Amino acid sequence: MKKIIVTGGCGYIGSQTIIELLRKTDYEVVSIDNGLNSSESVLERIYAITGKKVVNYNVDLCDYEATKKVFQLNQDTVGIIHFAALKSVGDSVNNPVFYYHNNIESLLNVIKCCQEFNIKNFIFSSSCSVYGNVQSLPVTEETALSEVVSPYAHTKLMAEQMMKFIAQQNNINFILLRYFNPVGGDLSGMNGEDPVNPPSNLVPVITQTASGIREKMLVFGDDYETRDGSCIRDYIHVIDIADAHLKGIERLLKGKNTSPYEIYNLGTGNGVSVLEAIKAFEEETNIKLNYEIVPRRPGDVAAIYSNSAKAKKELGWTPQYDIREMMATAWKWQLYINSKN
Prior knowledge:
single chain; globular
């Protein structure tokens, strides 16, 4: 049985990708996650959803020797899906040194292990933040990259540039997936975004506010040059994101890639403002949200949304869920969390 290592497998997108791998493929899946912003309790939920157990190695990928030991124990691995990274824009602004160390060192160690153990297929979790404040929308893979606006975004850009050079000199094939804004939860209601640290992403903040965990939520800025003054993002269901990883690893394993270094945008192509997202949640759940508009947050771009035609053409990937379904599954997940607390 072919084995896939998923780094950051206990995180939000990592765990959902593991669920989809177990549901739709016959791969054996191994997770590496040190619990820096996640919990191994997700493994129990994965088992409840899929009926399959997943081994997680609680290893800091910044520790090369510890990482190497995991690869030594799993030498039948044929592919890597690399999620492990810190991802808060605000935290990266406040603690850039830690972000550079964690996100870059961990990636390099995993790639070094791929070289040593002859693992040729690598899917990388990148971000639309590498585009910075773009001059034209929607964003395609050919859109010129402007200056990034946060250390987090810079770590993703550095990672992409490193892999481009590595791909030219090593027998590793890379697919880089530039996500826009993953939201929502598993259709079962038993998995979703549940970070150890307080969430800064919009949708879990919305659901926590709706359930009373937060007294109110903050909308950072209503003076952007957008249709209602709030930031515009391209929200994409986490199941659709996970599905793109499955299609990406299949592309590499079947040798269908035309280059050792390929990049794909993952978005719906529909920009939704923060205030529109709030309205969509309120209409879907009939719950009125308590929110306050406050000044802009450092590191936020005004608007960004995707043209994902390349992913549709080459990966055969098309998003299946709209903003209302994203909100419905996110709320279902929040109610599940509440029932367990």
